[in-house]
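User: Quick sanity check before I run a bigger batch. Here is a single chain. Can you write out its predicted 3D structure?
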Amino acid sequence: MRATVDHDLCIGDAICESICPQVFALGDDGLSYVIKDPFPAELQAEVEDAAESCPTDAIAIHEDDAAIDENLLKSITPR
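Assistant: Done. Predicted structure follows.
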């Protein structure tokens, strides 16, 4: 599974990072980024919780083979 963050919606409140720091981290610009792509299956519940907890619904979860909009791919920064 893959996660993305819509930076047009993200307000950088870091709820996602507090719930699942293995997958989400705030960047220098104050927005959330996906740092583990694809994320491991054992983190799916935490990623889903982060997505559901996002106050602006900026987080989306995608199947590994799903087509993802180029703008959303910019939120993925593998480390």
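Residues 44-53 form the longest helix (10 residues).

User: Great, the batch can go ahead then.
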